[in-house]
Design a protein that fits this description.
The two termini are 14 Å apart. The strands form two sheets. The protein has a seven-stranded mixed β-sheet, sandwiched between helices. A two-stranded antiparallel ribbon has the order 5-6. It is 27% helix and 20% strand. The protein has a domain of 160 residues: Aminopeptidase. By secondary structure, it is an alpha/beta fold.
């Protein structure tokens, strides 16, 4: 029986200078409410039925160290309970905002580190400084994603859903060469930039990702994606990018 990929998706609520977290706006209506058979949300609306049916849960977490640990503990308990069978594969897809990404880029995070070094307190007032996330493990030790992030970027670029940029690349249009004929119409918008990152920061994004990567094993993988602020890329365009990313994950991880 071929492997079937399903998704567990998480986002975060507001924190510090981010009063409206785009990951919350993407996910907050994803879970059914009342008698609604198909709840509306920007992300779900962007997913074709073949992808929407693969989302088994969507959770908006408080920006809280304790909430991240509780989520990971709950997932570990469910994982120990089994279910799904050998033919199933679950991808924990974590979304967080890079509030400093003025260029509108997306980052696929390849790793997380055993360090919590918060620059501002979390929602509960916790503010660890250069402490380990997991006691008994070397501080700064890395856990890496089992998802082939470079190949995902290649798929996104081939599909026209994104353009690759490197570390430090500025997201701008190429200059028009001198002497080029004037073009009356505006140029077609470029797809959003995407790159692979090896540093998810040392705040809650890295904290949750490190815990989630510790749950990787038979039938389970984790991936963290940093999205830009909504002021840089609209929620609708972010949803379209994430839908393309999820399709790329299905094709890559199911071997389509």
């Amino acid at each position: 029986m071929p492997t079937r990929l399903t998704f567990i998706i998480t986002g975060f609520g507001p924190f510090g200078p981010v009063s409206a977290n785009p990951t919350q706006l993407l996910l907050e209506s994803l879970q059914p409410k009342g008698d609604a058979a198909r709840p509306t949300s920007p992300l779900l609306a962007a997913l074709p039925p073949s992808l929407a049916g693969r989302v088994t849960s969507a959770t908006v977490l408080p920006v809280s160290l304790a909430a991240a640990r509780a989520w990971a503990a709950s997932e570990a308990e469910q994982q120990q309970g089994g279910g799904g069978g050998q033919a199933s594969l679950t991808l924990a897809l974590h979304l967080g905002v890079n509030a400093e990404s003025s260029g509108g880029g997306f980052c696929l995070e390849a790793a997380a580190y055993n360090t919590a070094n918060f620059r501002l307190p979390d929602a509960d007032g916790a503010c660890p400084a250069c402490g380990p996330i997991e006691a008994g493990v070397a501080g700064g030790a890395a856990r890496t994603s089992g998802v082939p992030v470079e190949r995902l970027v290649e798929r996104l670029v081939r599909a026209g859903a994104a353009r690759r940029v490197g570390f430090g690349s500025r997201c701008c249009r190429p200059a028009v060469a001198a002497g080029s004929p004037a073009v009356a119409a505006s140029p077609a918008p470029l797809p959003p930039p995407v790159r692979v990152s090896t540093c998810a920061g040392r705040y809650l994004c890295n904290f949750l990702y490190y815990l989630s990567l510790g749950l990787q094993g038979a039938g389970r993988l984790s991936l963290f994606v940093h999205v830009p602020p909504a002021e840089a890329v609209s929620i609708g365009d972010q949803a379209a990018f994430l839908a393309a990313l999820m399709q790329a994950c299905v094709e890559e991880l199911e071997g389509v």
